[in-house]
Batch of 2 targets.
Target 1
Amino acid sequence: MSVQRDLDELVAADVITNDTAQRIRQYYKNKREQPSNRFTIVLSILGSLLVGLGIVLVVAHNWDSLGVTAKTFFAFLPLAFGQALCIFTLLKRKEDIAWRESSAVILFFGIAACISLVSQIYHISGSMSSFLLTWALLTAPLIYVMRSHVTALLFIVLISWYACELGYWENEQHVPYLYIPLLLVVVPAYWETTDNTHRAYFGMYNWLVALSVITVFATFSGRLSLDLYEWLFIGYLALFCFYYVIGTSRFFRKHFMVSNPFMVLGIPGILFILFSWSFRELWIDSGLFGADHISWQVPFPYMVLALMIGILFLLVRRYQTRGWNTWSPTGFSVFFLVLAILVFNNVPATGVLFVNLWIFGLGLYYTRKGSIKNHLGILNLGLLIIALLAAIRFFDDSILFVWRGIFFLLAGIGFFAGNYFVIRKKKAMALKQMK
Amino acid sequence: MKNIFFISFIVVALAQWYVPVNMLREREAVLNKGKAFKFLTEPIDPVDPLKGRYVQLNFKAHEIKVNNAQFSWYDEAYVTIATGADGYAMVTAISKHKPEGNNDYVKVNVSEVSYKGTVFIYFPFDKFYMDEIKAPKAEILYRATSPLSSRTAYALVHVYRGEAVLKNLYIDDKPIETYLR
């Protein structure tokens, strides 16, 4: 081995001490062990996930041929097995991540299997949401007692399912208030992953939380969503703007894009809602605050207001420190749409025009930013926004053919010219650096 | 400090046992102390993602006429159960409070209130969990016992002070398993 040979040579030549050589050897030994360790952890987690799900499915078969006593015994078996594994891990393998994660995951599913089988034995109808809530409450402590991030990730999925059952799918829908404190339960575990040593978990937490909040958010509107769809659009636009703001914060920008769903989901989300409002149809029946049946009894309007205040606070603070020349219109989209709906509520054509102009403005902003920064990705995002706008307006027969034609031509030329100039600029800079 | 995780785990583990054991204990108490009623029913067969396949029961005795419509959709209510002249369970009264001096009542949810003052209810024992292979067969079997034929299907339910436990499903007085062997 070359390092070993070099170290011997360096020690012999008195360049480094024996002690240093030993430390270097230890360093390389640990470094070599890490990937295989990680592989073991991943395999153990996958294995325990499969075993856990397998137990739940086997239980769901409902073994009629067994008597009540035998069924009861088998109901508690996965629970006891999971707990025994956890006790063994805590006593003998406390520092082994693979053991901690696997045993906690098996117990996670063991609890579900146990409650399911007891429910089967006594034909307990019970609602799905109460079952999921019981399961979530019984597993929450495992996140910290077993120090298991996989359990925390499964817990996020579980509480999202619970909130959807209660808020969307059950006969009588309720606002799932408990979802918020339950989501806060994982915060300390999540915080632990922000120190760069748990990068894979950090990304998974971000993605699950971002998707979970998007899925569950509308349940807080209660029946409001049926009566006033504008609030739902405004609410989701506020959420996506908030995602965009935190996704572009200094904290998230130092991480890879793949770990930053707030940015990845934020911009398409904002564009999707703005594009929806670039059509006449949504404007015709809108009446944001005018409708009689607006409900302030559900938390949704307050959450939207809180998000908007949050966006404003974060953006103002950011531009104060980074300088107002770094200003970006994207995060302000929600304020623009609220204002547009309030002002042009009775004149849909003008409202539509302003939304189209705003989208066009966003496209121009990214195109300009891309060309200044010599960033082809940002440049093409801007051009893509303009091209999408053009494509959507292609079918809009309220605009004269000639205007649509000119717009298309300009958008197409913009694509070629923008990319050409940025590539040329990059080449020129590279040449300059070489000289 | 070293033992904190272990001690915490023991506390959590006890809670994890307490919940299912308590479910079991409560149901056993109803089976032992409760009175058994036969609820005429129609079974159909859906699936629960976690608990497996079950037979959904649509009970015949799921409505009661009231004088003043004090109930609305999904209200909680207590219905008093009695055995009718035909030998099957019937709902004799509905109230917002627990009936006194009688143990044969079940806590239910209101599913609908008609303008004529009839209150329809959901019983909390409308799922009969079965072997995943047998459950669809059970439904097919029941279809053979259509209202035209003389066969009848009923669920045997133990009722005690608001709680109810579904013990078995019968077709023509024989447990459903006997037909499925």
Target 2
Amino acid sequence: MVRVADDVARYADAKVGPAGGGFVIYYLTDDSGEPLKTTNAGDQGISLEDLQKTRGYDRLRSYCEELSLSVRIDEHYYADEPRPTKIYRVVVDGWS
Amino acid sequence: MTMSPDQILDIIASHERWLQRRTGGTRANLSGCNLADFNLAQVNLQSAKLSGAYLARAVLIGADLSYSDMFCANLDGADLNRALLVRADLRGAFMRGANLAGANLKEADLRGGALISGNPAAPATIIRSNIGQSDMDEADMAGANLSGTDLSHSSMIGAILEKTLLCGANLSGVNLEGANLQGADLSGANLSSARIIGANLAGANLTGALIHRTQFQKSDLHGAILENVDLSSADLAGANLSAGDGRGLSRSMRDILREHAVWIREQGRGGSRAQLAKTDLTSIDISDVNLSGADLREAILTGAVMRRTSLVMSDLSGAKLTGTDLRDAELAGINLAGADLTGSRMAGADLTSVELKGSDGQPTGRLWVANLSGAILVDVDLTGARLSGANLKGADLTGAKLNRTQIKGTDLDGARVTEQQLAQAIGKPAP
């Protein structure tokens, strides 16, 4: 959890010469650093709503609320071939 | 995800019903969809979800995309001529080579961000909104947040960028001829080789901007903040660089004052203290503003107008305040040690002490005196000012007017002041 505060402090300063002033996105990666796409949440019957109901996400949301930040899970289509694949990203933003 | 034209039309029709609050309407969710090369001219996708959508080369002439979520969308080469993008979320969007001529991006958000993988050891990937080499002639981007955006080599002739945030933006090689950048925040922006001819930059904040071979001919830089800016290689022929009347405060300065007001009101629990040390605030007009407790060490306030301004316990040590108007200002407990106030008007100013209170709000009996030790007060008008108890050790009061000035208990040890001057004042200084 502390990492969120560190990341925001490190990357959020939108004053002079910002590194990344608008948002921080977290995504899971495989060993090669690519977004985790060999695991298909849909195969396990896991939906976006299920991810939003997990204890971990709930804790993250509470923590972000404490920091007056917002958090959401973004669902993105990653590829059509060989089959439709989605990736999920956790987006932390809300500072001006 | 690729959609057929019929599916897209169905989604748009349903979205329009949703916008009209008609039955059966649903908000368009085209997030992540592949809409490359689609002709979506004049469509109404106001408030639609287009996050991560691939809209490269799409025709969006006159489309209404106001309030839409276009987070990380790809609009490379898209035709957004006269499109409405008011308050659109375009953070991390790519718009290389897009045509935004006449588009309205008022209050749109185009900031870059950080992508962080699950591996804490891996460095973050920084993604910047990229609208480089785009055509944005006459585009209205007033109040938009374009901080950190790459706008290099774009054509922005006549663009409206009034009060736009462009902190750290890459504007190298951009053509801003005739553009309106009044009050814009360009701090830390890269303006090298930019063509900013005949533009309005009045009151703009250019603090720390990179100026290299930048063309400012005939531009209005009246009241612009040019702190830490090297203008040696800039072409300023016919440009107006006058200090300004201070009323054209940049958005950043207004934000600082607003945050400071909150900081005072909430006693430090909210807002933030104005940190303006070493800041060039020449000729600024902050009359009636409450800047109590502000950090203005070594600030440059030459010619500033601060009538009735409250600077209680503020730190202005080493500040340059020559020719300022501080009449009737509240300066109790102020630190003006070593400050240069030559020729300033301070008639009626309050330079007395502040009684310190404990955490319970009760008086502690301790006084925080105004510190003017070593200050240069040459030719300062202190008529009717209250200096009782103040520290003026080693201050230079040559030519200062002390008519009816209250000096009871004032420490004038080593100060340059004549008996004739003191004879005009009220009360006896400290022995």
